[in-house]
Specification:
The chain is α/β, with parallel strands linked by helices and 320 residues long. Helices cover 39% and strands 15% of the residues. Strands 1, 2, 3, 5, 6, 7 and 9 form a 7-stranded mixed sheet that branches. Strands 4-8 form a two-stranded parallel ribbon. α11 crosses α12.
Length: 320
């Protein structure tokens, strides 16, 4: 009899632990599981899904009379911009200039993808001719200077840094001060910034990611905190670049917030009223004499090239 009672107690404890683990998984862990493929985790984008000259590719296709030949510039750039510069190659390069082995671009391919840090190093070292990125960091500028390289940056479009919440969150607009306050812990409940009575879960990104670096700049030295109880039961707020929200990782369960009363629409980004919009660039070594570089730049700035920028999910320099 005594043994039976002990077994019942042990079984009850095990069941309680299982139920607790299931609850924690559903309430917390499940919200933050990274269920992307290994390719997406490693590179922030499924490179194989946005190849040029490939049927079913996710890039946009533009027919143009501009066709490059001879000394083809090697193209590289940032993850978020990859579908766009892959489309530039698709429009203007010969098909046999790109080689992808199923995992990566081969060394002789005119299209490469090393992401922002690798692309800036490549354009300085000479293994890439034109890269497509946001403006360089102080570290990247210093690397160029140390190697005697002056970089030319040509603005080719606009991107915005945005804040996102769940679609059922009643908040539609926040001030810059309010967003910073949500992340510093000044505001711990959504009711303090015009929302309902729910705790705030101020979600951050991985250290070293482009969006986390942009967020640190936005916070301007203010230390960010995350509430334990907010992470358990609160409404989340996160951040990203607009293209990831509306394009690559479009999710109908989230919405972008207006900032200081201005929504991050294409029009507001183009006219400069959205406060966290900036240019992205075609970048090359100023001393690079490849004659195809100015031809490709001119195409990108043309109506056809800017149509690629727009159809790739970004804001062109001039709205079409």
């Amino acid at each position: 009899m005594k043994l039976s009672k002990q077994l019942c107690i042990i079984i009850s404890m095990i069941l309680a632990m299982i139920l607790f683990d299931i609850s924690i998984f559903n309430i917390v862990t499940k919200r933050y599981i990274d269920n992307r493929s290994s390719e997406m985790k490693n590179r922030s984008i499924e490179v194989s899904e946005y190849l040029p000259f490939t049927e079913g590719s996710g890039i946009c296709h533009i027919d143009t009379d501009v066709k490059l030949s001879g000394n083809l510039p090697v193209i590289d750039g940032a993850a978020a911009l990859y579908p766009m510069f892959s489309a530039f190659v698709d429009a203007t390069y010969p098909k046999d200039s790109v080689s992808f082995d199923g995992t990566d671009f081969t060394t002789d391919s005119s299209l490469q993808f090393r992401n922002t840090r690798g692309a800036y190093q490549a354009v300085v070292d000479g293994s890439a001719d034109i890269i497509f990125c946001a403006q360089p960091s102080e570290e990247q500028l210093a690397y160029a200077s140390e190697n005697g390289v002056e970089l030319t940056l040509v603005p080719i479009g606009y991107e915005a840094f945005v804040f996102i919440v769940g679609k059922d969150n009643p908040v539609e607009n926040l001030t810059i001060e309010q967003v910073q306050g949500l992340y510093t812990g000044k505001y711990t409940n959504w009711s303090e910034v015009g929302g309902d009575n729910r705790l705030v879960d101020a979600v951050q990104r991985n250290v070293g990611s482009g969006s986390q670096t942009a967020m640190l700049s936005f916070m301007n030295g203010q230390k960010m905190k995350r509430s334990f109880f907010g992470a358990l039961t609160g409404r989340a707020i996160g951040f990203s670049f607009r293209y990831y929200v509306t394009g690559l990782n479009g999710n109908s369960d989230v919405k972008m917030l207006a900032l200081d009363g201005v929504y991050p629409s294409e029009e507001n980004i183009a006219n400069g009223t959205y406060p966290l919009a900036d240019s992205f660039y075609a970048v090359y070594n100023s001393s690079n004499t490849n004659p195809n570089i100015p031809i490709l730049i001119d195409f990108i700035l043309s109506e056809e090239g800017q149509a690629i920028v727009k159809q790739s999910g970004y804001t062109p320099l001039v709205s079409n």
